Amino acid sequence: MTVPRFNDVKVGDTLPALTLPAINRTTLALYCGASGDHNPIHVDIDFARKARMPDVFAHGMLSTAYLGRLLTGWVPQTQIRSMAVRFTGITHLGNQPICTGYVVEKFEADGEQRVKLALKCANQFGDEKLIGEAVVALH
Protein backbone atom coordinates (compact mmCIF):
# COMPACT_ATOMS: atom_id res chain seq x y z
CA MET A 1 0.00 0.00 0.00
CA THR A 2 1.28 3.43 -0.92
CA VAL A 3 0.06 5.71 1.85
CA PRO A 4 -1.00 9.16 0.60
CA ARG A 5 0.90 12.16 1.92
CA PHE A 6 -0.90 15.26 3.20
CA ASN A 7 0.89 17.61 0.78
CA ASP A 8 -0.02 15.41 -2.20
CA VAL A 9 -3.74 15.15 -1.41
CA LYS A 10 -6.21 17.74 -2.67
CA VAL A 11 -9.83 18.45 -1.81
CA GLY A 12 -11.89 16.47 -4.33
CA ASP A 13 -9.40 13.61 -4.65
CA THR A 14 -11.09 10.21 -4.64
CA LEU A 15 -10.13 7.02 -2.86
CA PRO A 16 -9.79 3.87 -4.97
CA ALA A 17 -13.30 2.35 -5.04
CA LEU A 18 -13.92 -0.95 -3.27
CA THR A 19 -16.24 -3.22 -5.28
CA LEU A 20 -17.44 -6.35 -3.52
CA PRO A 21 -19.23 -9.51 -4.62
CA ALA A 22 -23.02 -9.49 -4.63
CA ILE A 23 -24.63 -10.18 -1.25
CA ASN A 24 -25.85 -13.77 -0.95
CA ARG A 25 -27.15 -15.97 1.85
CA THR A 26 -23.68 -17.34 2.56
CA THR A 27 -22.33 -13.80 3.05
CA LEU A 28 -25.11 -13.10 5.55
CA ALA A 29 -24.59 -16.37 7.45
CA LEU A 30 -20.84 -15.78 7.68
CA TYR A 31 -21.39 -12.21 8.88
CA CYS A 32 -23.84 -13.43 11.54
CA GLY A 33 -21.18 -15.79 12.88
CA ALA A 34 -18.38 -13.23 12.73
CA SER A 35 -20.35 -10.36 14.26
CA GLY A 36 -22.53 -12.25 16.71
CA ASP A 37 -25.57 -10.47 15.23
CA HIS A 38 -28.04 -13.29 14.68
CA ASN A 39 -31.13 -11.13 14.08
CA PRO A 40 -33.43 -13.47 12.10
CA ILE A 41 -34.43 -10.69 9.68
CA HIS A 42 -31.02 -11.27 8.06
CA VAL A 43 -31.12 -15.08 7.75
CA ASP A 44 -34.67 -16.41 8.12
CA ILE A 45 -36.86 -15.83 5.07
CA ASP A 46 -40.05 -16.71 6.96
CA PHE A 47 -39.24 -14.16 9.66
CA ALA A 48 -38.41 -11.54 7.01
CA ARG A 49 -41.70 -12.14 5.20
CA LYS A 50 -43.64 -11.83 8.47
CA ALA A 51 -41.97 -8.42 8.78
CA ARG A 52 -43.36 -7.62 5.29
CA MET A 53 -39.97 -7.85 3.57
CA PRO A 54 -39.66 -9.84 0.34
CA ASP A 55 -36.60 -11.70 1.66
CA VAL A 56 -33.71 -11.39 4.10
CA PHE A 57 -31.31 -8.48 3.67
CA ALA A 58 -27.82 -7.47 4.73
CA HIS A 59 -26.90 -6.09 8.13
CA GLY A 60 -26.25 -2.37 8.04
CA MET A 61 -23.05 -2.97 9.95
CA LEU A 62 -21.81 -5.24 7.14
CA SER A 63 -21.84 -2.22 4.83
CA THR A 64 -20.14 -0.22 7.58
CA ALA A 65 -17.42 -2.86 7.73
CA TYR A 66 -17.00 -2.55 3.96
CA LEU A 67 -16.50 1.21 4.36
CA GLY A 68 -13.88 0.41 6.98
CA ARG A 69 -12.14 -1.79 4.40
CA LEU A 70 -12.25 1.11 1.95
CA LEU A 71 -10.44 3.27 4.50
CA THR A 72 -7.84 0.66 5.47
CA GLY A 73 -7.14 0.08 1.79
CA TRP A 74 -6.09 3.76 1.62
CA VAL A 75 -4.33 4.28 4.98
CA PRO A 76 -3.27 2.03 7.86
CA GLN A 77 -5.91 1.59 10.55
CA THR A 78 -3.72 3.47 13.04
CA GLN A 79 -4.25 6.66 11.00
CA ILE A 80 -8.06 6.60 11.24
CA ARG A 81 -9.23 9.16 13.80
CA SER A 82 -13.00 8.88 13.43
CA MET A 83 -15.73 7.38 11.30
CA ALA A 84 -19.48 8.00 11.41
CA VAL A 85 -22.21 6.57 9.19
CA ARG A 86 -25.92 6.84 8.52
CA PHE A 87 -27.99 4.06 6.98
CA THR A 88 -29.99 5.30 4.00
CA GLY A 89 -31.23 2.14 2.30
CA ILE A 90 -31.56 -1.63 2.55
CA THR A 91 -28.95 -3.83 0.88
CA HIS A 92 -30.97 -6.71 -0.58
CA LEU A 93 -29.74 -10.09 -1.74
CA GLY A 94 -28.05 -9.72 -5.12
CA ASN A 95 -26.94 -6.15 -4.42
CA GLN A 96 -23.25 -5.62 -5.14
CA PRO A 97 -21.78 -3.13 -2.64
CA ILE A 98 -19.53 -0.44 -4.11
CA CYS A 99 -17.77 1.77 -1.59
CA THR A 100 -16.40 5.17 -2.54
CA GLY A 101 -14.96 8.19 -0.84
CA TYR A 102 -13.42 11.57 -1.54
CA VAL A 103 -11.55 14.29 0.32
CA VAL A 104 -13.76 17.17 1.47
CA GLU A 105 -11.39 19.07 3.75
CA LYS A 106 -7.74 19.37 4.77
CA PHE A 107 -6.89 20.69 8.23
CA GLU A 108 -4.66 20.41 11.27
CA ALA A 109 -5.81 19.21 14.70
CA ASP A 110 -3.96 18.03 17.79
CA GLY A 111 -0.65 18.61 16.05
CA GLU A 112 -1.57 16.36 13.10
CA GLN A 113 -2.31 16.98 9.46
CA ARG A 114 -5.70 15.44 8.72
CA VAL A 115 -8.27 15.07 5.98
CA LYS A 116 -12.02 14.67 6.24
CA LEU A 117 -13.53 12.18 3.81
CA ALA A 118 -17.08 11.76 2.54
CA LEU A 119 -17.96 8.05 2.27
CA LYS A 120 -20.70 6.16 0.47
CA CYS A 121 -21.75 2.56 -0.02
CA ALA A 122 -24.13 2.04 -2.94
CA ASN A 123 -25.27 -0.94 -4.97
CA GLN A 124 -24.42 -1.71 -8.59
CA PHE A 125 -27.32 0.50 -9.73
CA GLY A 126 -26.03 3.53 -7.82
CA ASP A 127 -28.70 3.28 -5.11
CA GLU A 128 -27.20 4.70 -1.91
CA LYS A 129 -27.29 2.39 1.10
CA LEU A 130 -24.95 4.08 3.57
CA ILE A 131 -23.28 7.49 3.80
CA GLY A 132 -20.73 8.74 6.22
CA GLU A 133 -17.56 10.58 6.91
CA ALA A 134 -14.17 9.80 8.32
CA VAL A 135 -11.15 11.72 9.50
CA VAL A 136 -7.69 10.32 8.89
CA ALA A 137 -4.23 11.59 9.81
CA LEU A 138 -1.71 11.93 6.99
CA HIS A 139 2.00 12.62 7.20
TrEMBL record:
InterPro entries: Fatty_acid_synthase, HotDog_dom_sf, MaoC-like_dom. SUPFAM superfamilies: Thioesterase/thiol ester dehydrase-isomerase. Pfam families: MaoC_dehydratas. GO terms for cellular component: fatty acid synthase complex. Gene3D superfamilies: Hotdog Thioesterase (3.10.129.10). This is Dehydratase. GO terms for molecular function: fatty acid synthase activity. Residues 23-100 form the MaoC-like domain. It comes from Caballeronia choica. PANTHER family: (3R)-HYDROXYACYL-ACP DEHYDRATASE SUBUNIT HADB, 3-HYDROXYACYL-THIOESTER DEHYDRATASE HTDX-RELATED. One of its GO terms (biological process) is fatty acid biosynthetic process. It comes from the Bacteria.
